[in-house]
Specification:
Helices cover 45% and strands 15% of the residues. With 319 residues, it is an alpha+beta fold. The chain starts with 6 loop residues before the first strand and ends with a helix.
């Protein structure tokens, strides 16, 4: 695969990143004791030495696998940063021993991968060379081939199929897909809920804007007589406008403040539906506040301008 035109690198892995499936188990660690059933729970992955480069997983400390880990005589593992922080907080995990059967030495720490899907936080993970047959042998029955290429998905998929068939014509090939589709599949179950939530949120925002405009327009209209009296007494239009806007923004500020506080308390209910943004994203809240403030300003300006065009004599005649 690595020799194919357009292929940058290739590797095998027991489970693709973000595929949400895999093996896990509790591990034993040298020089550490845990209460019964409370030892660290870790996800297992069996991979080739080029997996991390192919998947774009960065090396943080130590080293990665090499071809010298080609048998079980020197059992080694690479762990995720989440596992390093959980099992050896504040320590250097390089050289530490996993005392399960078989025993293994930690040689490297890599960045966390959301192997349970894009909507889940990374969990502690441990990678072993797939060539070590004593490590989790059941994981080698169904390995995934991962190819990083500059070609489009259809072109590289056809080339991969031909190479596999050249090695073993009877080999079954299935689920050939780009990583973008793999990622989409992990959030597909949430897509309908997210779409419906977005529609309802948009309708709610529209109703809120209409409501703010209506309330502010009514409030300003109630002061038409006061505006006429002030103008009859010599008040300047700029003064009247400043007065109206000030009163309106006081009401809007109070409402927005209450709304923001309530929103902060309710965002936890949609946290598992968000990706790439926090439930209390400052930019989102700021944009909504600015939008509501702008609508409230228009709601003040339009009726205020209409009221200031009224002849003060006409207003005083109806008081």
């Amino acid at each position: 695969m690595k020799n194919l035109p357009g292929v940058q690198t290739a590797a095998v892995i027991s489970h693709l990143p973000v595929e949400e499936t895999g093996y896990n188990g509790n591990i034993s660690v040298a020089d550490k004791t845990y209460p019964p059933n409370e030892s660290p729970l870790v996800e297992y992955r069996a991979a080739s030495e080029d997996y991390f480069q192919t998947a774009g997983v960065p090396l943080l400390r130590g080293r990665l696998f090499s071809k010298r880990e080609g048998d079980d005589t020197r059992a080694v593992v690479v762990i995720s940063d989440a596992m390093a922080k959980q099992v050896w907080p504040g320590e250097d995990p390089i050289g530490k021993q996993i005392t399960d059967d078989p025993k293994a030495t930690v040689i490297g720490v890599v960045g966390d991968v959301k192997n349970r899907g894009m909507l889940q936080q990374p969990v502690p993970e441990m990678y072993a060379p797939y060539t070590m047959k004593d490590f989790w042998p059941d994981m080698r029955w169904n390995m995934r081939l991962l190819v990083r290429s500059t070609l489009d998905n259809n072109t590289i998929a056809g080339a991969v199929r031909r190479e596999v068939q050249a090695v073993d014509p009877a080999q079954r090939i299935y689920a050939v897909q780009g990583m973008n589709l793999v990622i989409e599949n992990t959030v597909r179950d949430k897509s309908l809920n997210t779409t419906l939530l977005s529609v309802f949120a948009g309708v709610s925002l529209l109703l809120a804007l209409i409501g703010v405009y209506g309330v502010m327009s009514y409030t300003v209209a109630q002061h038409t007589r006061e505006i006429g009296i002030r103008m009859a007494l010599g008040a300047q239009p700029a003064t009247i406008l400043k007065l109206i806007i000030g009163r309106g923004l006081v009401l809007v500020s109070a409402g927005v403040g209450i709304g923001v506080l309530m929103s902060f308390g309710l965002t936890r209910f949609i946290e598992n539906m968000l990706f790439g943004v926090t439930p209390t994203d400052p930019l989102t809240f700021a944009m909504i506040v600015i939008l509501l403030g702008f609508v409230a300003l228009l709601a003040c300006l339009i009726p205020a301008a209409r009221a200031m065009r009224v002849d003060p004599i006409v207003v005083l005649r109806h008081t």
